[in-house]
Design goal:
It holds the Pfam family Trefoil. GO terms for molecular function: acrosin binding; structural constituent of egg coat. By secondary structure, the protein is mainly β. The protein folds into two domains: about 200 residues, Immunoglobulin-like (Sandwich); about 180 residues, Zona pellucida, ZP-C domain (Immunoglobulin-like). Helices cover about 0% and strands about 35% of the residues. The chain has a six-stranded mixed β-sheet with strand order 6-7-4-3-27-30, with no helix packed on it. Strands 5, 8, 9, 12, 28 and 29 form a six-stranded antiparallel β-sheet that branches. Strands 18-17-16-22-25 form a five-stranded antiparallel β-sheet, with no helix packed on it. The longest helix is centred in the N-terminal third of the chain and has 6 residues. The two termini are about 15 Å apart.
């Protein structure tokens, strides 16, 4: 995967006449020519410059390279990409430019900078979310005599989720389907029927379920232990929180009065459940699909490293001659038929899912290499080493070796 780069998208790595062994020493890919792999690579060049090559495959969903930018430059000069291909953006600038910070650590002088991406945030009355990949890259060049700095890698893991409890007077269950396409055993297969997509469900041992941003989350709410074919399950509101409590903040609406929340750019999709579903009592079920997101801090818009829990307020309706308990959604208006005198407080319940979390959005390894020979000097500085600190949602990594560094997720 790391070397599967189309010919037209390849960015040359190293000198034009570099050998295959020399190419591998730079942790690049070689196929008649040397080119950068599908990852993030940082080189400290021998003339005292940073070279950062960012692949759009650094995150999933794929990174929008147009959203990637440097720290604000206080010294002037151009700090944007010096070249680009459909799959890569290349930044190259002096270690003293483009907002680089300088610090002295004993006998070492360390130059540090950051590249990050912008992302779209949906702002609601009770919380804010994003479905875009969030990319941050901290990188360093450390100089001292003819020695190379060695640093230690540290990976921060996400703490285990809180337990979920959602009791209610009505025996209703909210569960998540895995999205497996029946016997095909594949996810998101085009042409799969709704019955196939909702044929397999996560078990207790599968939680917390992990998803990447914009992945579909298949939700089903159903009445348990009822055989009356005339009962109709209604969803009033469905929303998401970052804890197991349906009353906690922040919150993000998914359904309002049984209809997709209209202020969500990626609106929830309602899945019809009728006689073709193969279920004995189709009116006892409601299904919908949510595209995965993560909450962000309402003040700083920084993505929060938290779980997502889905909740729905439900009600059972008894159809009458004048009311069929329909929930209809159309256009900008959201309306729901409300039967009169056919519901009671004992037939209402709030049900919740177990934890869903955003998994690592960087499927490919991140790498960092020093391209400066030990005998080369730059000003008062000698050999160079680089360190890459990557943070993408729940991951913060710093790693370096003597000749090159490769950070693996």
């Amino acid at each position: 995967m790391r070397c599967q780069v189309s010919d037209f998208a390849r960015v040359p790595c190293g000198d034009p006449d570099i050998s295959g062994a020399g190419c591998e020493a730079l942790h690049c890919c070689f196929d008649q020519q040397c080119y950068y792999a599908n990852e993030v690579t940082v080189h400290c060049l021998q003339d005292g410059q940073f070279m950062v090559v960012v692949s759009r495959a650094a995150t999933f969903p794929l990174l929008d390279l147009g959203s990637v930018n440097m720290l604000e430059s206080h010294s002037g000069g151009y700090c944007g990409p010096v070249s680009a291909s459909p799959a890569f953006a290349v930044f190259q600038f002096p270690v003293s430019a483009c907002g680089t910070t300088v610090k002295v650590e004993g006998d070492y002088v360390v130059y540090e900078n950051r590249i990050s991406s912008t992302y779209e945030v949906g702002v609601g009355a009770l919380g804010s979310i994003t479905r875009d990949s969030v990319f941050e890259l901290d990188f360093q060049c450390s100089y001292y005599g003819s020695e190379v700095v060695s640093l230690v890698a540290e990976v921060n893991t996400v703490p285990p989720p809180l337990p979920v409890a959602a009791p209610g007077p009505l025996d209703v269950e909210l569960r998540l389907a895995s999205g497996q396409c029946g016997a095909k055993g594949e996810k998101g297969v085009e042409g799969c029927s709704d019955a196939e997509v909702y044929s397999d469900y996560y078990r207790d041992a599968d939680y917390p379920v992990t998803k990447v941003l914009r992945d579909p989350v298949y939700v089903e709410v159903r009445i348990l232990d009822k055989t009356d074919p005339h009962l109709v399950l209604l969803l009033e509101d469905c929303w998401a929180t970052s804890t197991s409590s349906p009353l906690s903040l922040p919150q993000w609406s998914l359904l309002v009065d049984g209809c997709p929340y209209r202020d969500d750019r990626y609106q929830t999709s309602l899945v019809p459940v009728d006689g073709s579903s193969g279920l004995p009592f189709p009116t006892h079920y409601k299904r919908f699909i949510v595209q995965m997101f993560t909450f962000v801090d309402p003040a700083s818009y920084v993505p929060l490293k938290e779980m997502v829990y889905i909740h729905c307020s439900t009600q059972v309706c008894h159809p009458t001659a004048s009311d069929r308990c329909d929930q209809q959604c159309s256009g900008r208006k959201q309306r729901r038929s409300v039967p009169v005198g056919k519901r009671s407080i004992d037939e209402k319940a709030v049900v919740s899912s177990k934890a869903v979390m955003v998994t690592n959005t960087e499927p490919s390894g991140q790498s960092l290499h020093s391209a400066v020979p030990w005998s080369v000097s730059y000003g008062l500085l000698g050999g160079a080493a680089c360190v890459l600190l990557v943070s993408s949602l729940a991951l913060a990594i710093s790693f370096m070796k003597q000749s090159h560094v490769q950070v693996k997720v």
